[in-house]
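[User]
Protein folding is very new to me. Any chance you could explain this protein sequence and its structure tokens? I have pasted everything here:
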Amino acid sequence: MGTKYKGTKKEVNTLNSFIKLTRAADSVRSRISSIINTSEITESQFYVLDSLYHSGPLTQKNIGEKVFRSGGNITLVIDNLEKQGYVKRVRGKEDRRYFTIHLTKAGKNLMDKIFPEFLSAVKDEMNVLGDSEHKELQKLCKKVGLKNSH
């Protein structure tokens, strides 16, 4: 279902693209999040753990940039993960004001369990597209996502 807005052809087309992109993303995210929500962590916590699991130790700022969360929000997420024993903060040796966030053994074990289920769900969601469609979708999403960074 598209927009009911009665504007120019370009406006209606633009709104319909936005609506379809948003609905598709929300729909996929909703189905995928059910996998994450069966564990003892939130979606935000999963994406922080995922960043550390695949990239290794990162600064809080780097994690925030990777998972598109604000500084205050990422601090709370990391605080809660630390309380649960999934991450630890390590103070910088050269600049003691900065911390690097590390995945603990418990955090790695949790991701070893959850990530394959997450990946399977993502593959199931995205298997409606062929290889060339995946490449086109990636290209279009990047183009829209990077619009203001030029």
